[in-house]
Amino acid sequence: MLNVGQIEEGFVLDHIPAGKAMSIYYHLGLDKFDGCVAIIKNARSGKLVKKDILKVECDINALDLDVLAVIDHTITVNVVKDGVIVEKKTLVLPKEIKGVMKCKNPRCITSIEQELPHIFYLADSDKEIYRCKYCDEKNSEKM
Predict the structure, then answer these.
(1) In a domain, 141, yes or no
(2) 72 and 103 share a domain?
(3) What is the bridge-based pairing of β-strands 76-81 and 119-124?
(4) What range does the domain containing 127 cover?
(5) What is the pTM of this model?
(6) 104 in the same domain as 63
(7) How far apart are alpha carbons 123 and 94 in whole angstroms?
(8) Contact 112, 134 (CB under 8 A)
(9) Are the C-beta atoms of 85 and 79 separated by less than 8 Å?
(10) 37 near 30, Cβ under 8 Å?
(11) What is the distance between the alpha carbons of residues 19 and 45, in angstroms, rounded to a whole number?
């Protein structure tokens, strides 16, 4: 059995679909993070059969929930303080997301003006569809 120690302050991302932990790791900028990060891949799960788990010891306000929600809004976010889970956060798809996705439309202004931030708005929350703010191109990128 694998034993990963508890964290004192930070967060535990649970119920990540198997194989998505590394994508989340990079999108949250944890590769540049200097603190303790534990990545558990393909753990057994009654709910998902297999799942990934991320444990990050850091200030609890350091997590960008919007980025995480765009990747997968069904992930469980457990906030840990003094070694105990004090809160479970529910992820909600943000109305607008900036700098996470890139517009693939070659005619979009972001292709020409490369310093412009890539901004997408939530066009259909039921189907989880985001569209480019500048050209209205549907985002086809799965994170």
Answers:
(1) no
(2) no
(3) unpaired
(4) 96-132
(5) 0.79
(6) no
(7) 11
(8) no
(9) yes
(10) yes
(11) 14
Query: For residue 137, what is the DSSP state?
Result: P
Residues 6+ apart with CB under 8 A from 65: 77, 89, 91
Q: Tens place of pLDDT for every residue, the chain, 143 residues?
A: 556 677 888 999 998 988 899 989 988 888 888 888 999 998 888 776 899 999 999 887 777 888 888 888 889 999 999 888 999 988 999 999 998 889 999 999 999 898 999 999 999 989 999 999 999 999 866 66
- State which H helix or E strand residue 21 sits in: helix 21-27
Asked if the structure places residue 140 within a domain, the reply is: no
For residue 52, give every residue at least 6 positions away whose Cβ sits within 8 Å of its Cβ, in sequence order, or none: 16, 17, 18, 19, 20, 21, 39, 40, 41, 42, 43
Token code pair at residue 26: 């990079």
142 part of a folded domain: no
Residues 27 and 75 reside in one and the same domain = yes
How far, in Å, CA of 143 to CA of 133, rounded? 19
Which residue spans within the chain are E strands per DSSP? 9-17, 37-45, 49-57, 76-81, 84-89, 96-98, 119-124, 129-132
Can you give the length of the chain in residues? Answer: 143
